[in-house]
Amino acid sequence: MTGAPLPAFGSLAPMLASTALTVPAGAGWLYEPKWDGFRAIVFRAGGAARLQSRDAKQLDRYFPELVQVLARCLPDGCVLDGEIVVASGDGLNFDALQQRIHPAVSRIERLARETPASFVAFDLIGLDGMDISGLPQDERRMLLQALLLDAPPPIHLTPMTTSHAEAIKWLGSFEGAGLDGVVAKAADGPYRPGERAMIKIKHVRTADCVVAGFRWHKRGQDAIASLLLGLYDDARVLHHVGSTSAFSMTERRALVQELAPLRPPTLEGHPWARWAEAGSDAKRRMPGAQSRWSGGKDLSWQALRPERVCEVRYDHLQARRFRHAAIFLRWRFDKPPLACRFDQLEVVAPYELARVFRGDC
Questions:
Q1: Are strands 293-294 and 16-19 parallel, antiparallel or unpaired?
Q2: Set 34, 185, 202, 335: catalytic member
Q3: Is the pLDDT of residue 351 over 80?
């Protein structure tokens, strides 16, 4: 919609990425580093700046030092897409970034001084009060470079290259700085809000999953053995895809208290409640295969309201389930549960395999 008025704050969904195992080669690709932070869209209008999260929530109160710089250094009528990050001496610090999401103003102000945030811009959606999302990616990149030519830290322009060899080099060397991998974008592509129009190549295969239940530890109900993971399909049905159990005993005991507020009194409304009356064939797919239900509670596993998201590492997906137990990496408080979908697991097939599928090898 190039030339149209800018969208209102809170109504713009960011363009997303699907996952590939290798960096795509060939003409027409732009490559950028993949930053490990909070995705954010910056709206600059009326002399002020506002930060919108990927799920349309306001982030301004959590990063006041960043909002001030963005308001001072960006022109009115622009909209930028990018990543909020916290840099430390050892590289990006995602844990420090997560600590900024806190209800106490005093804590936020203290952390703003101790661990100030930066904004890394990688796309331009609006300029001079007009929507430019319909322009090709390479044109938007040139406009973004011009816009940020004199922008001071903590505002940064992400590096970009058209060289496949350079992208491969980045994939290895930038990991030491805490970056996540490489993103490939079609040079002639428009900005497509809410669509998986980019390709991300990460150092490990990961997924963001909904935590919808857990199993008690064999030693008793003072510790949690594993978290039960789910992913949504296109119809917004939450499917059980596996579990993660990579916790120390101290963490297992702490999880009991941490997850207690999410335990429902009954299964009413829970996405996996239908397994209570399911037949034996369906029960093999439920989280607690040999469980018995009583009074809305299961003797083998405990349901949780599907409100928490975690990132896990997995090695193989088989029949839409993790082949082995996934490895817990971290909580993702910045991700809404409905964003945890199967389509994030899509991969781009290597060229040789694509030729076999077409039968022209």
A1: unpaired
A2: 34
A3: no
